[in-house]
Amino acid sequence: SQQGEEDPQALSIQEGENATMNCSYKTSINNLQWYRQNSGRGLVHLILIRSNEREKHSGRLRVTLDTSKKSSSLLITASRAADTASYFCATDRNSGNTPLVFGKGTRLSVIA
Amino acid sequence: DAGITQSPRYKITETGRQVTLMCHQTWSHSYMFWYRQDLGHGLRLIYYSAAADITDKGEVSDGYVVSRSKTENFPLTLESATRSQTSVYFCASRGGVAAKNIQYFGAGTRLSVL
Q1: Measured between alpha carbons, how far is residue B62 from residues B15, B18, B57, B59, B81 in Å?
Q2: Does A2 contact chain B (CB < 8 Å)?
Q3: pLDDT tens across A71-87, in order?
């Protein structure tokens, strides 16, 4: 069963707005990762946040992690049409000794 | 991504036929994975391999067989295809501990079982 569950399932915003996606998980983790999937393509790694980190930035991406609530959020600032994709969180429970477990994803549409 | 290649990209087959999906990576990554992606279910792990000749079942392994005789190849076989196996299949790989368990995905194989 899925470890991570993203919320919302779908999100539609105007270009220039910020997009926030949330992920909840069930068990303790070593790290949490976010991936992007463009239509008809494979997943691409975006950012990783360790369990002892609370916030991480990469360009227009900001990820937060709250281990007490078992949740994470991905914020994309100043969105662009090219950000249109599905976004997945993935949890790593055991420092790489077990496979990542992916959520069902959030489909983001950025309207120009 | 040029480092991990899946073939074929599209496949149509009939129920009961055997089908093999190929996956090849050029990084010498130790771990390789097979997932299926279906609407409403996200990505589900079928099988994974920690090294050549070492494979483990994932969440939805029934009806699938894998092998890993060489580090760079990880074929997935549907022994007797069923309509429920119509899906998009993704192969992924990752390196050792220093790789932080970041996975690299192929472009996928869209399989239709009629």
Answers
A1: 16, 14, 9, 9, 11
A2: yes
A3: 999 999 999 999 999 99
Tell whether omega for the bond before B8 is within 30 degrees of 0, i.e. cis. yes
Q: Is the peptide bond before A99 cis (omega within 30 degrees of 0)?
A: no
| B54 close to B70: Cβ distance less than 8 angstroms | no
Higher pLDDT: B82 or A94? It is B82
Q: Which two tokens stand for residue B8?
A: 């074929």
B102/A33 touch (CB, cutoff 8 Å), yes or no: yes
| Coil/strand/helix, residue A103 | coil
Coil vs helix vs strand at B92: strand
Instruction: Please report which confidence band the pLDDT of residue A68 belongs to, taking 50, 70 and 90 as the band edges.
Output: very high
Measure the CA–CA gap between A84 and A107, rounded to whole angstroms. Answer: 8
- Does B27 contact chain A (CB < 8 Å)? no
Which residue type sits at B63? Answer: G
Q: Calculate ∠ Cα B33-B34-B40, nearest 5°.
A: 125
Torsion sign across C-alpha atoms B68, B23, A101, B29: positive
Contact A103, A4 (CB under 8 A): yes
Residue in A31, A33, A99 closest to B33 by CB: A99
Of B36, B40, B41, the residue nearest B6 (C-alpha)? B36
Helix (H, G, I), strand (E, B) or coil at B1: coil
